[in-house]
Structures are given as structure tokens and as C-alpha cells.
Amino acid sequence: MEMRDSEKLPPSITDFLDSSPFQLHDTPGQEEVSLTRKFGDETIRVSFSIADLNAIPDQEAEEYDEDKALYDEDPGQVPESAQSGGGNTKGITNQGRTDGGNFAVAPEDRVAPSDTDDPDNETGAGETSAEPTFPVRVNVLIEKKGNGIMQVEATAQDGEVVIENVYYFKNAELAEAKTAELDWKRKNLYEGPPFGNLDEDLQVLFERYLDERGINTALALWVPEYIDFKEQREYVRWLSNVKAFVDA
Asked: Per DSSP, what are the bridge partners of residue 153?
């Protein structure tokens, strides 16, 4: 389902979609969202989930809201933890609802506002600071018909796509392993070393490879923003459904 054709989206979201070769697929009521495109003989699918937003611990959510509130009051005094370059997150309406081990920022990785008093870190005149963002797990599938599929597990945050693992499967069905049999087959395959263990030059080549296919800064900035938009929309839909059930 291509949401931009069926529902009004904020300009900041449509700007990316209008200038991007990706098509958006977002089914109401489901957590996962995907982007698809063709690149030569390749079929590319990028997927992510609003579960990453809901998994932010309550303490982290409070700090996140505080950072955003400070930004809203005075963009010139954004704490370092909020200067992320991520999406324009508009507010979190229902955080901490799920566990499940989703990626979340560790408390020790945040910077307190008191740690940003260094005048050298102040935003210059005419510059704009981005609102705080959050890490989003991104799953990239690049398939060449008859030649298997490459799977890239990455995290999008602060305008960066950070690669974590790269896998190759001759059988494309193993990439997502939707059955117990496929999952068992995948577990018995050698999936390659952790990405961080690769030679640095090879890591750079993989990053360029993704960048050429549109998995880049623009996408890393857009994904957290779209997740925030979708989570709020799904939350309102959930409230409406519950109310209709109670009133029936």
C-alpha cells in the first residue's frame, strides 16, 4: 500500500518520497514498513518497524521529550544529545509499551545538558540544529534473480546508516526464514564475520555500495521521522478501535 496516495503526509515526509526512487509500503495496523525499488537487475527492499520507538525505556523517553522541549523553546540551546541530525520527531504519544529486546540508546551514551556549556559547541549564526532522534534497526535485502540475495542489518540514527552485519544467501528465502525449516537451514550456514571485524577498506566499500542504492543519509534522516508519524497514527487508530468496541 502506497500511503502517500491514500493519506495526507507531512511535507517533510513527502519531500523524501517525491525525490526518492523508493516506493513506500505501509499497511494500516501493522508495525513494519518497507521501501522498495529496482536498481539495474536488483530488487531492493528496506524494512523497519515502529517497535523500535515503542521500545524506548520510560527514562529514555522522558529524557528524549526534555531534549525536544528544550529545542522547541530555544533552538540555539539544544543539548548535545539532541543535536542529532535525525528526523523531526513531533512527540511520542505511547512509549515503552513493548519489550522484545529492541534497539535502544543506553543511558550512558546520552549527554546531559550541563555537559554542553562549552562555547565552542554553540550553534553558529544562521545554522539550524536538528531535533533529537533515536536508533532504528533497518533490514536491507538486495536480490539478484538467479544469483541469490544479500542481507544487510544496520541501524539508522543521526543521519548515518551504521552497518552491523552483512549476509549472503544463495537461496533468497533464507534471508527472512519465515518457516521453522528455513530457519533451521539458515542456522547451519556460515554467515560471515561481524562487520566490524572486516578490513576498514572493505567496510568503506560496503558503505559506498549501499549509498549508491539510496541507502544513505537522506534515508537515515527520514526513517525515524516516518516511524514517529506512523506510531502516532497507529495509536490514534488503536484508541478509536478500543472506543468503538467499548461503546458497542
From this structure: 139, 165
